Amino acid sequence: MTIMIVYYAITAFFGAVLFWNFVKSKDVQKAILYLVILMPFVLRVFRLK
Amino acid sequence: MKANREWIIKGIALAVWAGVLVSSGIAFAQHRQYKEAVVLGAGVVDVRTLGDYFEPLKGTTNDCNIYILDSGVPGGTLLIMGAVHAEEPATNLAAQLIVENASATTGRIIVAIHENRSGSTVTRPGDAYPQFFTIETDWGEKKFRMGDRWANPLDSWPDPETYVHYPSGQLLAYMDVRNMNRTWPGRPNGSLAERTSYAFMRLIEEEGVDLTIDLHEAELEYPIIGTIVAHQGALDVAAMVSMMLTAQEFTIGMEISPLALHGLSHREIGDFSDSPCILLEAPEPFLDRVRGVTDEALLLTGQDEFVMKAGEHGLLYWPIDENGWPIDIRVARHVRTIEKITELWTRFHPDEAMVVAGFPTYNEMVELGVGHFFHDPSTVSQDRVAFE
Ligand SMILES: [Zn+2]
Asked: From the CA of A6, how many Å to the nearest CA of chain B?
């Protein structure tokens, strides 16, 4: 249970970092790539997949 | 100017991304929350839940319904478990069909339709699995959840590096910590699948179950197919069922549960309780890795030219032709084999007699389709409807 919470926290952290990278990135192609990678993180944090 | 253009593209990408996220999120949530309506047959006297036998499971995803079909006449108790692997839909259907139609005239039948409910709330999008499938009935379409072999990671996460089976210590693949046919006999503080197995062991103990039947389907590339796998406590019954059905009705093999392979129902349930366990395998071409388009049609018809081709090259352990393996035949095999097992069990164990009624015949199920045996939940009183 505790481990599960820690994993959700880690997922949320990486999700936030990825989103921040998307905002900061000057390279549009990279920014879109960040978004694609972000998708599973968001779905997991919202407990959808 | 350049920065502006960058933000326009980013904005469009973000909008598309949000659209995909929302639409897929809704699809995932709808599948996870969809409930299958089950019309309680005349034989059902009580509906409990698994949590009644192991309190910590109460209210969790795996607190599945436990249907009690009691004759009131002393005899044996049979436990039937469906959809331990929720990607094996004939097992869910066979168990539901029994709950809606069967009764016991001596002894008791206990049924769990979704043994590992969590596994039925997730599919494999990466393998193009459909989320739902529908069966034609006399009153319209009945919709079921398609599922996966493993419990949903939303309910059981993260997996260990290596799954160490309890209590044997055997090392298994990491994801099998969520595979309920690798977690028997379970433990009260383990993973969700281990806790669910543990709860079923408590049920078996508390209800004095004499025989357990675990329903499965398998790919034709897998050697354990179209067969009965039996714990040594039920070998006589299983061998006799296999011989009689093969001689008179349809081909079904028989295998002895290996002694050293741990975590499996047909091994551990018999070793850790007074109930031997028999596992039934039906052929499901949908699961074959060489299959073509993975859609609802393949799930229901079991027809696939690529699997057929593999058969022509001798790569399969079970025959297949252009007729495939339709769901009606797969369900009929399970339902008929269960009925035959009760007949032979009663012959070998008269003091633990299990006499059943209301099972449709094999030919009825194949000719009329299994949908014919599902009842319209809107035409019965709501206290006779359960939700899976
Ligand atoms: Zn299976």
From this structure: 10
Our CA-based measurement puts residue A17 at a distance from the nearest CA of chain B, in whole angstroms, of 16
- Using an 8 Å Cβ cutoff, are B252 and B228 in contact? yes
Q: Which residues of A touch B28 (CB under 8 A)?
A: 43, 48-49
Condensed to tens digits (0 to 9), the pLDDT of residues B135-180 reads 999 999 999 999 999 999 999 999 999 999 999 999 999 999 999 9
Q: Where are the domains of chain B?
A: 34-387
Interface test with A, best of B7, B154, B159, B192 (most A CBs within 10 A): B154
Q: What is the ipTM score, two decimals?
A: 0.93
Chain B residues inside the 8 Å CB shell of A39:
17, 20-21
pTM: 0.96
pLDDT per residue over B307-335, tens digit each?
999 999 999 999 999 999 999 999 999 99
| Protein residues near ligand 1, an ion, with CB under 5 A | B 85, 88, 216
Which of B6, B16, B129, B159 has the highest number of chain A CBs within 10 A, making it the mutation to test binding with A? B6
Q: Is pLDDT above 80 for B1?
A: no
Instruction: Confirm if B226 and B282 have CB atoms less than 8 A apart.
Output: yes
Q: Tokens 């969809």 — which residue?
A: B34
Say yes or no: domain B34-387 is CATH 2.40.30.
no
Residue B136 host element (H or E): strand B132-137
Structural tokens at position B56: 């910590």
Angle CA B274–B277–B281, to nearest 5: 175
**Using one digit for the tens of pLDDT, what is the confidence trace for B192-206?**
999 999 999 999 999
Can you tell me which residue has the tokens 């379409």? Answer: B141
- Cis peptide bond N-terminal to B319, omega within 30: no
| Cβ contacts from A onto B, under 8 A | 42
